[in-house]
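During the second half of the funding period, the structural biology subgroup turned its attention to how the target accommodates small molecules. The most pressing case was 3-methyl-2-oxobutanoic acid, which had performed well in the primary screen but for which no bound structure existed. We therefore specified the complex as follows and requested a full 3D prediction, including the ligand pose.
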Amino acid sequence: MPDQPMDRMTVPSLMARKASGPRIVCLTAYDFPSAKILDEAGVDLILVGDSLGMAVLGYETTVPVTMDEMIHHTKAVTRAVKRALVVGDMPYFSFHLSADETIRNASRFLKEAGAAAVKIEGASKRRLRLVEAMAEAEIPVMGHVGLTPQSIHSLGQYRVKGMGAEEASNIVEGARNLEKAGAFAVVLESMPREVAKIVTESVGIPTIGIGAGPACDGQVLVFHDFLGYSAGYLPKFVRKYADLYGTISRAVGEYAADVRGGRFPDDSTSYHLKPGTEAAFGGRASGTGGGGQTGRKGGKGRAK
Ligand code: KIV
């Protein structure tokens, strides 16, 4: 058996947190550097969400996101992660045609992209059968109830789900059925905290909340939202822990002013010829940048 680092998060260790705590810390990530930061900071669960489409790719909804886009970004994330459990999100229409196609698509997250599990939105009877089929194919599945953003065109708008009794009991029943079908955890998105509490108390699998209040077994936020890296509207449930949009805008402004004002690059950010070399070729530039170290040498592909 291959060695696992002692505290590597696995599906069973994540499930055990329901009883033992501590609460599960989850964030989304879509690329190597951000996944590395989250993993090194001790995030337990990294979701390569199809929010990729809106946060990174500039789509208006998550609907256009493709399997190939999800696999490409999940690969970048898993290359960076040593400890966290990585879950890949099944995009719209990757699980809508047949059980066979669903399993084939889900297996790509494990076989090609190195994820440990997949997430699928919804808890209709058909979805439950797909969860069963994936679990039977040894693909750990995370469910997702409440607001399911892939349903945006039938919903008409993103809104809090479960405000009324009927919708609330559908959410509770959906989560219970997902557990019965073999899901190892369930995301609860945009619902009254009271409903999320009832769900959390009535299932034996961990609940991961986003806009679902404090009673859940864990919490997830979208990377770009919690770091203030997105320009647009933020839902009420987001707490911003940084202002990356402002920080990056200010940095770009300073860089542009320095370039335009001739302050960048300066001597400390320029290469120099070896002493005496200039005289040897009559002071003409060699066209290679000088300094004896040109191009991509040293320091991981960068001239020092
Ligand atoms: O796509 C995503 O990032 C998600 C989370 C918001 C749960 O589904």
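Two results from this model are relevant to the next phase. Strands lie at 24-28, 45-48, 85-89, 117-119, 141-146, 185-189, 207-210, 218-221. The pocket of 3-methyl-2-oxobutanoic acid is lined by residues 28, 47, 49-51, 89, 187, 189, 210, 220, 222 (CB under 6 Å).
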